[in-house]
Amino acid sequence: MNCLFWDKSELLDHSWKIKSKVKLSSIPNAGNGRYTSENIQEGQIIRSLKIIKLKDYLLKFKNLDSDLLNEGHMIILESYDDLESLTQHLLDISNTNIELIKLKMSWYIAVINGLLIIHSFSAYYNHSDNNCLKYNFNEEGILKQIASKYIEKDSELFINYNFFKFPTYYIDWCKKNNLSTVLKNIK
Questions:
Q1: CA dihedral (9, 12, 14, 19) positive or negative
Q2: How many angstroms separate the CA atoms of 103 and 141, rounded?
Q3: Three-state SS for 111?
Q4: In the chain, how many H helices and how many E strands?
C-alpha cells in the first residue's frame, strides 16, 4: 500500500456508505472536492471510520493488517512527535519530497472533539459556513460523518472548518516547517 492519504483512493477505502466522486471543487482555487452521486437524507451516514492512535496505525501498517488496508481510519495525532513520525512514515512509503508531504499534511489535518486528526484516506471535504455534514463519535471508537440536512445528488459535500481549535504543538510544527499559508488561517 504505497497510496498517500491525498491520493484518489476510493478503490481502497471501504468506509464510504454512499456513492460519491472526487472532482474539481465548486470553490475557486480550492482544488478537489467530494460530490455525492445520489440523493442523501438528513441523518444518513456518509462515512464510518475507526478511530486509531498513530502508533497503532503504524504498527498495523507494518504488519499489513487487512483491516487497515481496506478501511478508512481517523488517525489521532497526539503530539509534535506524532506529526514528525507521520511525516517520516509518508516519506518512507512514497517518492514524494518531505516539503510536499508536510504541506499536504497541513492541508488535511483537522480537529474534532479536541483531537488533532487526519484521515487515512482523504475525504476531500472543503469548508463552507453552509456545510452539510456533522460528526458523531460512539463508545466503540467509531466516527460517523452524517448528513446534517438533505443533500441533492451531484452536490459538493462540505464541513465547517471554523470550529477547529488547533493545539499548540500543531501550531509550533507549522511554524517550524514554515507552513505560512496554514498559519494565516489558524485562529
A1: positive
A2: 28
A3: strand
A4: 6, 10
Q: Is 47 helix (H, G, I), strand (E, B) or coil?
A: strand
Cell numbers standing for residue 10 = 476510493
∠ CA 57-81-184, rounded to 5°: 105
- In eight-state DSSP terms, residue 155 is P
The CA distance from 91 to 160, in Å, is 30
**CATH C-level class of 20-183:** mainly beta
pLDDT digits (tens, 9 = 90+) for 90-148: 998 888 889 989 988 888 888 888 889 998 878 888 888 899 999 888 778 888 999 99
Please count the other Cβ atoms lying within 10 Å of the Cβ belonging to residue 72.
23
| CA-closest candidate to residue 143, choices 11, 25, 5, 46 | 46
Instruction: Give residue for cell 445528488.
Output: 153
Return d(Cα 14, Cα 179) in angstroms, integer. 32
* CB atoms near residue 97 (< 10 Å): 10
The pTM of the full predicted model, rounded to 2 decimals, is 0.83
Cβ within 8 Å of residue 106, ≥6 positions away? 174, 177, 179, 181, 182
